[in-house]
Amino acid sequence: MNIAAEVMVDSPVRETARDNDSLLILKFMVMSVVNLLIGTIQGVLQTLPEFALWIRATGPAGHMIDPLAHAHINLVGGVTLALMGIFYYILPKIIHRPIYSRTLSNTSFWFSVIGVLGFFSSLVLFGIIEGNMVLDGMTYQQALDAVGAIHHIAIITTAILMGFGYWLFITNIFLTVFKRNGGT
Ligand code: HEM
Ligand code: HEM
Prior knowledge:
- This protein is 85% helix and 0% strand.
- The protein has helices spanning 3-10, 12-16, 20-46, 49-58, 60-95, 102-135, 140-147, 150-178.
- The protein is elongated.
- One protoporphyrin IX containing FE binds next to helix 3 and helix 5.
């Protein structure tokens, strides 16, 4: 067996997905379940009385963690990433043409994944920092001022990345349905 063949057999991902299209769909599915794992662990933590009290006591700072971070890691990172993978699998079978652009699919995948993980992490991180400042006696506005522009920069940048993830996906689906000649 040559080295290339050994690598193919050794890697479970390669073994499962033998062509690029399957590999692409597998990437969406794997990241979907990774995000669902993070979101459901957070969900269970949220049911702990200490956690719920902390969230309630910290007001808008706690709101960034529960429900905002929780809702988006589960719905954007878990549900819609899986939906994107399902679209890429089913659409070619319905219209008997491949997805318009694999480059667009890959780019949208990375924008969505980096966007949602960044959005989630920023909400949780700034939620914890600002929440503790509020518990130390600051108002939420004072905590926001103390943290400075980085709060808005992180959240807006990662929101834009998520947005591009969706818009590139939507563009790719429209081009696949309405444009007969495929792209790259
Ligand atoms: C083990 C699984 C999960 C647990 C234990 C859990 C638990 C919770 C808890 C405790 C809350 C906060 C309720 C509150 O503060 O009033 C919440 C909110 C929420 N969860 Fe989950 N969750 C889980 C999975 C999910 C999943 C898979 C999704 C979506 C696919 C989801 C979507 C949401 C949303 C959207 C909210 C916010 C609801 C609102 O607008 O107030 N959760 N969850
Ligand atoms: C580019 C993508 C997205 C961005 C930047 C975004 C951003 C936001 C922001 C800033 C809020 C807070 C609004 C507020 O508290 O005033 C919010 C709320 C919410 N979003 Fe998104 N969102 C996106 C996509 C989605 C998608 C695709 C879903 C569902 C599939 C979703 C589900 C929710 C839910 C359930 C809430 C309410 C959470 C709560 O307060 O209980 N979002 N979103």
